[in-house]
């Protein structure tokens, strides 16, 4: 039987299938399979050539110097990177179009250039004049950043080969770069992968830090940057929606640092501005004395973040009730509603439930359960939560409230921001004694979700009459 000459590659996840299918078996996306020429079979060139050099294997013990870092001058970005860019490494920055990827990278590159290092910015999306215009808006026109507009990989590589001093190279975006040796269109998995591999190889050889920008699109016409994630050393995602001024930078992979750190920025007329105290910002627009609102004392990475959880209930108009969640896991909300119903006798089945994390932050911690439950109970009973109270704690299926990590840090942040009360899981004694509460903070420990609900008087749903 003849060898297949082509294969079908999913443009969303990179899975390979021998035949065309409407839906990718691996990731479940529709209409993402595109035909590509198959890679040659048989032993690779390395095996054929033979006579390789002997590798030296070493033990785990021993001294290795930490990798040299290049500070970007943007503390929030450095924090997410784990202390700055690492020389000879590759970072992928993903995010929806228009979220601010080009803006922050232009700012970072300009800062590095201003510090006396050579930084290059290659834009494949915008003309030189457009980038200049943005730089002028950002007040960066005077920085010695090297700017070019190019999309042909051959040209980019030829130019970078000659760079001996480069500390940083930004490619904006990897989806616009193309290699003429490949038949596929720019942005397809084959192109993106081949171009990224070449650029990463160059970064390792020349010792510069490489930043690749990648768009995330739902349509699947462009290759999602997912296929790149295993090739790069770190992947950062820029989150937030364009309607909000907050932007969250989150690492999902980092070979040189932790992955749970976030950087918080605010999009302003003068570009992205770092937010050193996100809690104050996220709570800035909170209005007291409104039912359905509770403050969650969360932790993102090493940093405590207080955010407002908002819940709204409205009588369902036939059919199955709606469950709309922004910024939290909808599966988790369903679970919490089930626990509230079967363990606490609080039925919300006849209501549409809307849940929102104010400010555009996306929370992944289960520790938010207790705050969400408080917001729901408050909405259901039409009784506001105490305006000076924070909540945190995980809820189990039997309604028990479980311990979460770093309770002391959460409490300290609440105290710092002027909160006076906290509802939290029963604290376990450490070394024979229960840790002391921060001064001025009254703690309410709850062992079961029902204890929390009892505080909200009768937990029956108040159905508002339409006005
Ligand atoms: P951009 O960095 O071009 O996004 P991406 O590269 O991720 O596609 O950001 C574009 C948006 O940011 C655009 O809607 C305008 C806005 N913006 C500001 O609000 N202030 C600024 O100073 C700049 C440069 C952009
Ligand atoms: Mg851009």
TrEMBL record:
ATP-binding keyword on record: yes
InterPro entries assigned: AAA+_ATPase, DNA_repair_RadA, P-loop_NTPase, RecA_ATP-bd, Ribosomal_Su5_D2-typ_SF, Ribsml_uS5_D2-typ_fold_subgr, Rubredoxin_2
Positions of ATP binding: 95-102
Keyword DNA damage: yes
Keywords: ATP-binding, DNA damage, DNA repair, DNA-binding, Hydrolase, Metal-binding, Nucleotide-binding, Stress response, Zinc, Zinc-finger
Short sequence motif named RadA KNRFG motif, residue ranges: 253-257
Region (Lon-protease-like), start-end ranges: 352-467
Residue span(s) of domain RecA family profile: 66-216
Record NCBIfam families: sms (TIGR00416)
Family according to the record: Belongs to the RecA family. RadA subfamily.
Domain notes: The middle region has homology to RecA with ATPase motifs including the RadA KNRFG motif, while the C-terminus is homologous to Lon protease.
Function as written in the Swiss-Prot or TrEMBL entry: Plays a role in repairing double-strand DNA breaks, probably involving stabilizing or processing branched DNA or blocked replication forks.
Name used for this protein in its record: DNA repair protein RadA
Lineage: Bacteria, Pseudomonadati, Pseudomonadota, Alphaproteobacteria, Acetobacterales
């Amino acid at each position: 039987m003849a060898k297949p000459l082509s294969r079908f590659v999913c443009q969303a996840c990179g899975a390979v299938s021998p035949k065309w299918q409407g839906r990718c078996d691996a990731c479940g996306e529709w209409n993402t399979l595109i035909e590509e020429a198959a890679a040659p079979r048989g032993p690779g060139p390395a095996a054929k050539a033979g006579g390789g050099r002997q590798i030296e294997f070493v033990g785990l013990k021993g001294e290795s110097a930490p990798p040299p870092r290049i500070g970007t001058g943007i503390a929030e970005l450095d924090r997410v990177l784990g202390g700055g860019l690492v020389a000879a490494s590759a970072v992928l920055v993903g995010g929806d179009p228009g979220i601010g990827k080009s803006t922050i990278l232009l700012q970072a590159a300009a800062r590095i250039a201003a510090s006396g290092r050579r930084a290059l910015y290659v834009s494949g999306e915008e003309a030189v004049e457009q980038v200049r215009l943005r730089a002028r808006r950002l007040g960066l026109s005077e920085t010695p950043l090297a700017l070019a507009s190019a999309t042909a990989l051959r040209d980019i590589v030829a130019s970078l080969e000659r760079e001996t001093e480069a500390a940083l190279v930004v490619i904006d975006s990897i989806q616009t770069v193309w290699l003429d040796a490949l038949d596929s269109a720019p942005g397809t998995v084959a192109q993106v992968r081949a171009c990224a591999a070449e650029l990463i190889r160059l970064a390792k050889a020349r010792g510069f830090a490489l930043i690749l920008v990648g768009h995330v699109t739902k349509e699947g016409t462009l290759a999602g940057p997912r296929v790149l994630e295993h090739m790069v050393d770190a992947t950062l995602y820029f989150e937030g929606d364009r309607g909000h001024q907050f932007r969250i930078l989150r690492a999902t992979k980092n070979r040189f640092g932790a992955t749970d750190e976030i950087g918080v920025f605010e999009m302003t007329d003068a570009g992205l501005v770092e937010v050193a105290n996100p809690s104050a910002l996220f709570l800035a627009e909170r209005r007291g004395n409104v039912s359905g609102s509770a403050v969650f004392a969360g932790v993102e990475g090493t940093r405590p973040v207080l955010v407002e959880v908002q819940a709204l209930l409205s009588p369902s108009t036939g059919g199955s009730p709606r469950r709309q969640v922004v910024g939290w896991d909808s599966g988790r909300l369903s679970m919490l509603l089930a626990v509230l119903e079967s363990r606490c006798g609080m039925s919300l089945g006849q209501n549409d439930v809307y849940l929102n994390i104010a400010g555009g932050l996306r929370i992944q911690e289960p520790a938010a359960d207790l705050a969400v439950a408080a917001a729901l109970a408050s909405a259901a009973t039409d009784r506001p939560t105490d305006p000076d109270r924070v909540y945190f704690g995980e809820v189990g299926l039997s309604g028990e409230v479980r311990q979460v990590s770093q309770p002391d840090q959460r409490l300290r942040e609440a105290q710092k921001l002027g909160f006076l009360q906290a509802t939290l899981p029963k604290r376990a004694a450490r070394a024979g004694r229960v840790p002391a509460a921060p001064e001025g903070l009254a703690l309410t420990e709850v062992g079961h979700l029902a204890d929390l609900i009892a505080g909200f008087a009768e937990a029956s749903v108040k159905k508002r009459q339409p006005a």
